[in-house]
């Protein structure tokens, strides 16, 4: 019999997600999950997500501890707003083109940013102690975790898909509308299923410290795979008449591996009739769904049973690298700041949760410019060299990583250790913020920017080096501005919860417009205004010098 | 009498390093077993394997007369567990947490509420029943964990460092409680670093060192080997007799001086 631990009995108070789940409870029961227990665990998790941890004494988190509001759901409207841009698709009369773009966008958004933030929930080991020691089987616990993440993913998908779904009903009819709605939900379940499959495989094959690293690398691979997939999907279509917006599709056998296309085939059949290709793709979609469902059913308890490997002790020693030591000497004048610099560097080097949250974004920030370079090189007239100017905007992509970085450094698995920051004899908040900002700049942003800048230099020659140096200095200033704006608590002092999973992702999307404007201003002014490069260099050097010595002092007092 | 728990040749490795090496022992119903050993000896690993949290590499475990592989998870309803670290879902209140645990054990809400309030009252934390666990002290969290391990009236208790963070009065209460639980027929398997408590409470003491059982018997029998306290016996069996030298080394390190060779 089910009890009402959190006031969630079937009543008017019952949250909608539980009511909907009750309707499909037979699926859980048939696959061997104890549904009442799973429902109870899930309700508890969702309740906890809505509550904030109280800030530790002396640290202002900017939130009330008794606040019960799930930030994730209340911020979903932003995604709906952003995905309004997809409505341009309805100007084309090619459904396959419309929905290929839509589903590719959906997959890339979910895989490259959002899903990484949920890995901590799927790979949580605390539940094994507090719930796994009670009469709850591994399958039930695994199903509760997957459903927990699934609820967020489905809501995210619906928020992103809402404009397209509504316009589909209006322009393409009820059948297409229902189809796009159902397939959108299925797409997010695919993302979850694929991620769980990857985790289950890795957890089975590896142990100890290697396992932790491979989990992080798998996130990178998934996001790189998605970015490349998005590029390849883009290659299938060609606008053959810009006036009538006529699109031609060139599907080849190689494209059969691009699974977002499988989601599109039913629309092709609806608009153009049944063809062998569409039929084959639809069959692949159905077979893939059944396959993933079977894998999920088979893997949920395996993941739980192998999860304890994550907690197995490791004797790996970590040393300060030459770069870390030199950077600390060069950029941190104050000994306290130097200590925090090493602390920030080491904690982000060893904490798996930080890596899994950030690495996919790093991969995207690196792969996007490479794909764009390739597109630029292949899109021009044959035999005509591309203007160097067409490559200059690429390093600015690095800046899109900054919001995710600023969000990631706020959380830590070991957030309770933050009492130690109160023990320093001097006011440590400003040096701490400066040190972590510098560590992240040197450890993550500079190498990333350098790789892209070298790529750009290869095409443009050294005459644009000053522009590229200015770009890096600007990145550093923007990191400071973003950290000052968004980091409300001290670094590594907050507990991570599912309701905050979309913070970085949303930040990146909002960041896109200012980064675009700034990069255009920077490039145009340096190309056309005499001595602008030198003037900008001086200004940026001054700003960097200021934040690196005096930054963060006012706010954190 | 058939043992309630029987472990034979239990082995476990982490990262290729053996943590349990052919561990064998048995526990009879109604016994209090003190399971002690230095940090990293494998005590918590043994309990985690019994509770199905991690899989064993080799050996056999029979609980309630059956190999644990034969059971579904229902056997855990007869076990009460207190983990080594007082990790709780901190955003919940004590009431919500205990109701949730009660629910997982299949208990009625009214029963859990009544029991929880009474048990919290007995341990002096009733006023915090509706307080968030995040605001609880270490000792208060430990009490909540102890309550949660007893809500369902289990047959065998696995308590890992149950006295962690408790004040002197609470320690006395828990010691009395352990004794009364034994009188009530419960089997208690607990590990602790507080030798004095282990010595006084345990019917039998198991000492684990480097993944191997190095002593197993009532204290009265074991002390004949060491001729002293349990602490002395522990030091002898775990090969540790350099307390003074290490304390001296520590002090020198603190003052930034070189240690002299002994």
Which sheet architecture does the biggest sheet of chain B show?
Answer: 6 strands, mixed
The most extensive contact between chains is: A-B, 36 and 38 residues
Low-pLDDT segments of chain B? none
Residues in helices of chain B, as a percent range:
25-40%
Number of DSSP helical runs of chain A: 21
What is the gyration radius of chain A calculated from CA atoms? Answer: 25 Å
Rg from alpha-carbon coordinates of chain B: 20 Å
The N- and C-terminal alpha carbons of chain A lie at a distance of 54 Å
- N to C succession of SSEs of chain A: HHHHHHHHHHEEHHHHHHHHHHH
**What is the typical, i.e. mean, pLDDT of chain B?**
88
Query: What general outline of chain B do the C-alpha atoms trace?
Result: globular
Give the mean pLDDT of chain A. Answer: 81
The CATH class label of chain B is Alpha Beta
Separate helix tally of chain B: 9
Strand order of the largest sheet of chain A: 1-2
CATH topology of chain B, which one?
Rossmann fold
GO molecular function (chain B): ATP binding; ATP hydrolysis activity
Keywords (chain B): ATP-binding, Nucleotide-binding, Transport
Domain ABC transporter (chain B): 5-235
Protein name (chain B): ABC-2 type transport system ATP-binding protein
Tell me about this structure.
The complex is a heterodimer of chains A (557) and B (262). By secondary structure, chain A is an all-alpha fold. Chain A has 21 helices and 2 strands. A two-stranded antiparallel sheet of chain A has the order 1-2. In chain A, strand 1 and strand 2 form a beta hairpin. In chain A, 43% of the residues are buried. By secondary structure, chain B is an alpha/beta fold. Chain B has a single domain, classed as P-loop containing nucleotide triphosphate hydrolases (Rossmann fold, 3-Layer(aba) Sandwich). Chain B is 37% helix and 23% strand. Chain B is built from 9 helices and 10 strands. In chain B, strand 1 and strand 2 form a beta hairpin. In chain B, helix 2 crosses helix 3 and helix 7 crosses helix 8. The chains are: A mainly alpha (557), B alpha/beta (262). Chains A and B meet through helix 3 and helix 7 of A and helix 2 of B. Chain B: One of its GO terms (molecular function) is ATP binding. Chain B: Keywords: ATP-binding, Nucleotide-binding, Transport. Chain B: This is ABC-2 type transport system ATP-binding protein.
